[in-house]
Amino acid sequence: MIALTGFTSYPKAWDKATNWLNPQLDRVGFLSWINLPNWHNWPFQLGLDLQGGTHLVYEADTSQIKVEDISTGMQGVRDVIERRINIFGVKEPLIQIESTPKHHRLIVELAGIQNTSQAIQMIGQTPSLDFREERPAEDTQQILALQQQGQYLYEDPYFQPTDLTGKNLKKAQLIFDQNTGQPKVGLEFDSEGTKLFADLTKKNIGKRIGIYLDQTPISAPNVNEEIPSGQAEISGNFTTEEARILVQRLNAGALPVPIQLVSQQTVGPSLGKVSLGASLRAAFFGLMVIMIFLIVFYRLSGLLASASLLIYGAILLSIFKLIPVTLTLSGIAGFVLSLGMAVDANILIFERQKEEVKQGKNFGESFKQGFKRAWPSIRDGNITTLITCAILYLIGTGMIKGFALTLGLGILINMFTAMVINKKFIQWLEGTRLSKYNWLFNRKWK
């Protein structure tokens, strides 16, 4: 486990070793078939303040929207913006809604984006909703054949546009079947849309109608009969959450919330690099000071605790890569703080062990009781901090969430390394010659 986490957090060490070892194996005839691969490098996801990028603030005009529809409309616009940004190629975009009684804003952070004007143009587009009917089979075959030749690559071979679009949709809402309780999506059209929808369903009975948002199909329900009322239902194997998301997407196209850019801030890559370098130096020197303190005051015990801290750091950094966690300055602050809390756990264990030694217990028994007596304090302190992290993550904004997430993950790993890895180190020493010298484990026995 130590090797896996170490190489995952710092794969260059493995790669350097394999790049040197593979040629040596080639020189040995019966080992030439061995070719050690390089370690897969999962990069860290860096936030705006470390990588550079763009911070945008949009003000939403909700004056023409009912109060009860504002939340759904804002969520719908946020969903569309996030999908557009993902198409643009931005990794881990941060999009948040900030609402007050008078103002509703979207906060957009795009880490690593240099072409800011294009991103702003994409975000500012109004969501596009349209309804399409099935193409004749011969048209579908013809388009598919042309696409194989590299033509009409962006043409939908299965559905063709109609005159019914999002401007004709009055409202979409989440409803439930009265008999089965299954969630469905209800559609309501305006007067023009009612006529268009009636004509569309009349000539497509037994066929499907494609519903597209931003040129992407989101549903294709079957038409069972003509629908002249201007109201329809989309049914299927929806979960409540899937139906809710579909309602948001439909309303985002049918009732777009106008947004206006009110603030733009660009963080250059050089400034982000400076911030990253300063953060890494702070974390490194903090770790060194902690390790020196442990070794000076607790000697061999402190050395073992320092080794467990290094393992703790490797595990936590590997988790940051694998999840992945977007690292920001506040996130690194949470990581450094979790290092300090990891030291607290070790100090509690060592101080309890000193008390047991003063009562005349031997090496193994004193550490066993030290772990046992320290655990309630470690557990309660970490649980209260985890509760605080959960609250901060649920109600906080982007920077606060990053701090809470890294601190919370650090605390969970800390409990594992303090109570499992430290204990394993002590068990290895038990019964050896080193365990007989008390002065190796504490600076002073009282």
Question: Quick one: biggest sheet?
Answer: 4 strands, antiparallel
Spatial order of strands in the largest sheet: 3-4-2-12
| Helical stretch tally | 12
Distance between the termini: 38 Å
Family: Belongs to the SecD/SecF family. SecD subfamily.
Domain SecDF P1 head subdomain: 162-257
Domain Protein translocase subunit SecDF P1: 74-134
Subunit structure: Forms a complex with SecF. Part of the essential Sec protein translocation apparatus which comprises SecA, SecYEG and auxiliary proteins SecDF. Other proteins may also be involved.
Identify the notable features of this structure and list them briefly:
446 residues; alpha+beta; Gyrase A, domain 2; Multidrug efflux transporter AcrB transmembrane fold; 3 domains; 4-stranded antiparallel beta sheet; 12 helices; elongated; transport; transmembrane helix
